[in-house]
Amino acid sequence: xxxxxxxxxxxxxxxxxxxxxxxxxxxxxxxxxxxxxxxxxxxxxxxxxxxxxxxxxxxxxxxxxxxxxxxxxxxxxxxxxxxxxxxxxxxxxxxxxxxxxxxxxxxxxxxxxxxxxxxxxxxxxxxxxxxxxxxxxxxxxxxxxxxxxxxxxxxxxxxxxxxxxxxxxxxxxxxxxxxxxxxxxxxxxxxxxxxxxxxxxxxxxxxxxxxxxxxxxxxxxxxxxxxxxxxxxxxxxxxxxxxxxxxxxxxxxxxxxxxxxxxxxxxxxxxxxxxxxxxxxxxxxxxxxxxxxxxxxxxxxxxxxxxxxxxxxxxxx
Length: 317
Fold this sequence. Notes:
With 317 residues, the chain is an alpha/beta fold. The chain has helices spanning 13-25, 45-52, 66-76, 100-108, 179-184, 197-207, 233-250, 253-276, 280-295, and strands at 3-9, 33-39, 57-61, 84-88, 92-94, 112-121, 136-138, 144-146, 149-150, 153-154, 165-166, 174-178, 211-222. Strands 1, 2, 3, 4, 5, 6, 11, 12 and 13 form a nine-stranded mixed β-sheet that branches. A two-stranded antiparallel ribbon has the order 7-8. A hairpin with a 5-residue loop joins strand 7 (136-138) and strand 8. The protein is globular and about 50 Å long.
């Protein structure tokens, strides 16, 4: 299967210099092509790519489309020959044979539409990384969590998730997906701009009967927070708004009204906590997120699947 590794970059020249060498060094040319899609950078990113990474393909886009629509724009400009896309964050470090287990698993399991590697933290490689860990799930109220991470707490990696497992969503930090299926379900939703767009995509995949797995024999190391730090009010806004869009688009009709009422109260509690902590910008971000979600032009409602109540227990070593 032909594979395109597509790294979306925006003003990330330093990240490219730091992380792209590992991807180039550990990705055999017969396994995948490496392409950087530049999202209208105004720094020296294109110069760095041209002079320091001449073996890497470049898609230069005219402006910053955001993460979700940026990937859609970039993937539309690829040749049609690719069977698989690997959406890879620009702050990912990889090691030897990082890609092969995922490619082999996808080749052997036609019912799997997408997968992710085990994601460890670049700054603490003994622990899982927040963004995707060992695969994601959603609780009954629509809050995402991962094997290896619950809310802000991440686990050390002791091999407890070293078996391939079905997951509800795979991280967008390193997402391998079949190209035909990507377009069949509409790709990433550009309305999201960034954050939780991969959860929406995976939910749509599952609603159509596709499997999503974590292949932990593939390992990547993720820096995380390269574009927006966790405490940034813009990130707070996007996470709260996009989580509401995610539920509106994908929840079964019978669950939608009750869940949205509960989430209204829980979001107000979260806003109050920010207010009591003196974090005025985050307080306003939550309120703005709710207003924005109510008027967002997201109306697609595919056949929905119910939310899982909990993740499976860790596999024994």
